[in-house]
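Subject: Sanity check before I submit

Could someone independently write out the structure tokens for this chain? I want to compare against mine line by line before I put it in a report. The sequence has 352 residues.
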Amino acid sequence: MTPQTRPGLPEVDPYVSPQLDVAVRLNANECPRRLPDAFFETLATVVRELPLNRYPDGQMTHLREKLAERAGHSFEGTWTANGSNEILTELLLAYGGPGHKAVVFQPTYMLHSRLTWLTHTSIVKFTLQPPFAIGARDVAAANGVKPHVAFVCSPNNPTGNAQSLEAIKRLAQGSDALVVVDEAYIEFGGETSQPLIEQHPNVVVVRTLSKAFALAGARIGYCLADPEVVQNLQRVRLPYHMSSLTQAAGIAALKHAGEAESLLDGIRAERDRLVEALSRMNGVTVYPSQANFVLFTPPNGTSGKRVWQALLDRGVLVRDLTAMVPDALRVTAGTTEEVGRFLEALEEALAA
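---
Independent answer below. Compare away.
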């Protein structure tokens, strides 16, 4: 007998971000450079002393203290998990679920919708038009459906624009929904919603060490919230969900925060270089970005999928987002050499 899955599961494709063996990989919004050797020396020293025969600290006390200190937030209102996606899942487990609904503003981070399905939360989708800013009408429409959770990504993935604090504040004021502000790219631009938490305890800010801290391989995310929200997350989290090794990597990275921050100016410069160069290409539409990536579309009549393949044929991998924005591709701000190779490959692809 073949066991039956939950209804609808066979129709859902696995979430896969292609990691192909190419010379220039600019599809995953990763930091193009690793942290300096001093970080790895610190981490190696700590790992050698870890009692891996024992379970990790289930409260992630030291890591949460360092995250709270860096953010200027209370320890009780700071929580961490294996990547921001696990934080988002825990928030939906605590505030979503059967009989509850979430709202998203598309195009946006596709995991928001996927995780609502995973947690049996119903979803209401609102579509934004360029420049993809959440306006007063969008807020009113979202609050009108009386959601239990509202997702805002700022700066938004994949469009790159930051949402206004006023729009987020209106979302929080207009309903008792948990307003989840995904700030995975906040170190690159935009204004944080963290100040809203004190007056609006239904606001939660979610961040990651994957992007600006060059720790995508360590999988560390965290949130800043009202302490009551963190208490509810403790009710749904898995026991010992964050390994001693992961906690050690986060603590070591925070000790070297200055070195991580020194990488940011170069990444922003390459992002701005991408925007400027793409804007000069005949017929290419480029969207302004405050993140570490740029969304663009080729000239009218040119298939985005064909351009994606042409770039891949030239050893450059970008993200195909044609299913979210017609013919759109997203390119990460990589090193100076990587960006140069992308621009050269794109010129050739468009000419062909």
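---
OP: Matches mine. For the report I'm noting this point. Residues 68 and 75 are 5 Å apart (CA to CA).
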